Amino acid sequence: MKTDRRDATRRNWLETLEKYMHDPDVAGSADYWSPKLDTATRDELTAIQNAKISAVTPFLYENSGFYRRRFDSLGLAPTDISNVEDLEKWPVVDKVEMMKDAQDNPPYGTYSGVDDDIWRTRGWMMFSSSGTTGVPRVFRYSQIDREMWSWANARAMHSMGIRPSDCVLICTGYGPHVFAWGVQFALAKMNVAMIPGGGMDGAMRAMLVDRYKPTVLTCTPSYALHLGRVMQEKGLDPAASSIRMLFVGGEPASGIGNTRQRLEDLWGAKLVEFYGCTEASPHAGGYSCPASGGPPISAHLMEDIQIWESVDPETRARVAPGQRGLTVCTNLNTEGSPQLRFLVGDYTVLDDSLCSCGRTHVRAIGAFAGRDDDLINLRGIKMYPTQIEQAVRAVPDVGDEYEVVISTDGKGLDVMTVRIEHEDRSETGGIADRAGNEIRSRCEVRVDIEVLQVGTLPKTEFKANRVHDLRDKS
Fold first, then answer.
1. Whole-angstrom distance between the N-terminal and C-terminal Cα of the chain?
2. Cα separation of 384 and 222, whole Å?
3. Which of 163, 208, 353, 444 is the most buried (most CB within 10 A)?
4. Which architecture does CATH list for 1-371?
């Protein structure tokens, strides 16, 4: 009887997903992959969300030990959360809870909707969080997820302006990371040609750009800077290349004005981006549209497949539209990883007014430029790495890489050193002063500046790890 009930809730959930999957294989118009969904009214979007919530809560209760225990501990039944307004009854889920579940129930945890039987019969791919903040959280996705993912990402990439006439060079490693795989499968659905650039060094990738003329470069913002410099070292001009679009993800970019400008100037190309996380996949969360470049800078969030809120960082209570808060996602487009109010944790301001591109879905104004997990507390002064990045990029001719080292000095005082690169080694004092002043004006803290020769600091094609906290925590 229990197995029958589990099968019934899974079947109902998957049928609900399929019901609202319009234009699954081909773009419905020149401007919108799925016109009916991309321009749906607010009432229509809410109706879709409510239908999916009422189907996903019993599915989670029957198929996820993590969610069943949470429902029971809160004294809630799945029917108690059957629409968008009911979500406030459900306290925000954070990474700490998931890490504990993964630790207590190795190796996969119990937060997923895919069990061993599903994995054996229609398993597709496993993805993982980085594990840098604790036990890695792994997610097993099914072949059904693959189809849903390809469709949702195709809608987002169509919004960016990627078309079958393009050729996309993907310069990321093909490990268990959601970004590159999601792009690749969506491009296949869109009939867009691609060049896989995994497992190559910068010189080889620069050769691909010069010889085979891709029109879109896909990578992290850090790597786009690095590859542009490699091309310059080889006597090639990135801005004169075939690249018309920089499609980035994994790190903040569009929301950091100086970084965005540096990238667009370097390549002579438009910057677009994906925003999301492993836990609320398999598809992009935030994505660019023709109007995302502003003013104001923004990113859309696809509301027929996800519900986005912003919450107060201390109380976790929902904040009003137009107020700054941390991103929270209810994920409604997957068999493997439906989530109720997962704390993604980036600061932004949500706005559901109509975008000039015609899309009705909520936008993150200013995009995303500061994850709560990354908050630096130095002697009681709080700042984000993105603030330091904005300051560093404001110094003329400073190199693309920088590094933040926090340590405890001999007097027991926490100190910060920001290491930057600059070609002119004869003016290190003046450069250090300018960088220090820029940081002080934005972060209200004095830091030490170390000026290094360009090329000293490490490059990476994955998320750049620029903050090294070496403080004595004993």
1. 54
2. 17
3. 208
4. 3-Layer(aba) Sandwich (3.40)
